[in-house]
Amino acid sequence: MQGYIRTNSTRAPCQGVNLAAAKEQGQLVFLEGLKSCLDLLFGEEEQPGQPSPLQFLSGSSRDLRALFDFVQVSLTPCARDSWKGPVLLVDDLSVLLSLGAAPVAVLDFIHYCRVSVCCQLQGNVVVLVHSSEDSEDEENELVVNSLCHHSDLILWAEGLATGFCKDVHGQIKIIKRLSLRQAAEQDLVQIYQYKIQDRNVTFFARGLSAAVL
After folding, report:
1. Residue 130 and residue 4 in contact, taking contact as beta carbons nearer than 8 Å
2. 137-157 burial string, b = 16+ CB within 10 Å, else e?
């Protein structure tokens, strides 16, 4: 599994977020993909002037323009609001390929999101994709490689090569793409191991798990 993050290096404190309250206050806009798919394929007809964000599923258009329009409208602040560093989360991008979207259409969608969110609104785009070294899905790997090439920060989470361990559930590789800003710079790579607990995740350096200590 691979996580890709396009960020402007802004950092936020580790605090809990009440998503229901954030949605009521207009700070969170959520697109429920499964519900949108079912509504489009089996639900009522679309309202004039309100196309489904997943309109490409109907076959009328193969691009993701409607999905980008939804993102753009959702990020447009009201007159009384002032967006500061908005974040676009896409979980996960591989699903669009599974639903029949072409790799070029997916990459175009992310490109326009990056321009709108990162460049115009000074925000961040966070995208989840899946990949593996022995993958035979050429379209998915094309998207993954392109995202990695353009990202500022890559989080690569994977299981342990040695197999299951009750004290270590996997490792995460953090790649800071310093070479994007200065060609002479080398990317900074950090590797940590992690353990998933009931309500949080514990990270530690390799060799410092409870099983070793």
Report:
1. no
2. eeebeebbebbbeebbbbbbe
Distance CA 134, CA 1 (A): 12
* Res 2: pLDDT: 37
The residue with tokens 């992310």 is 110
- What does the block give as tokens for 12? 């936020």
Q: Specify the DSSP class assigned to residue 47.
A: B
CA distances (Å), origin 136, targets 21, 35, 101, 131: 42, 30, 18, 10
> Which structure tokens are listed for 137?
């899905």
pLDDT per 10-residue tile (average), the chain, 213 residues: 36 57 80 81 65 80 88 74 78 88 94 92 90 84 91 90 82 89 84 88 79 56
What is the rounded distance in angstroms from the CA atom of residue 176 to the CA atom of residue 151?
9
